[in-house]
Structures are given as structure tokens and as C-alpha cells.
Amino acid sequence: MFDDRSPIYLQIADQIKNDILTGALAEDEQVMSTNQYAAFYRINPATAAKGFGQLVDEGVLYKKRGIGMFVTPNARDLLRTGRKESFFADVVDPMIREAKAIGIPLTDIVRHLASYGDA
Where is the signal peptide (predicted)? Predict the structure, then answer.
């Protein structure tokens, strides 16, 4: 599951975010405890706790004292908004700059994208 591309705690956070976006984890659903997560994936519990802590800081998970961690009611919308902003900043904006640099009109880009239909 984990690779060397980024710290494990970030990969944990990304996996949980993906599970929320795909519906594998629903809003208000309890997630594995950090100790369960650490045992299941054979990682240090402190690493798992750091990933979960990041998600709490981002408002994706919340704690119920003595019970565990749960998916925040608006987590899916929050994540979609963030991913949409990142998509435009990381993918679309550089694509438009490159198209302008090589002389592709914006209308050609729109026409090409429209040929794929609604996503």
C-alpha cells in the first residue's frame, strides 16, 4: 500500500480522503482507530496518529472522546472543493499557459474537451 513517494502519514491521509470521496467511508462513519490502522498495515502507531491528526486539522475527521474518530458530515464536499481547486491550479492553468505558448486557441481546447462529454 505504501511507497517511497511521500511520507507514510501523508499517504494514510490521502487514502482516507480517497475512501471518503469514493463513498467507501460515509459521513459520520467511524474509521479504524490509529492502533487498529497501525496493526493492520504494520506501521508505527505514531505514524498513523500523525496522518489522522492531519485529517482532524483539515476538518475531514472529528473525534468523539472515548469512542473514536469519525468522518465529518461535510467531508466529501470539503474534499471535492479542495480537489477541484487543485485540479484547476495544477492541471488546467498550466495546460492553458502551454496552449497559449504554442498558439492553440482556447476555442480549440474547449471543443476538444467538449468531445468527451460531461464527466
Answer: none
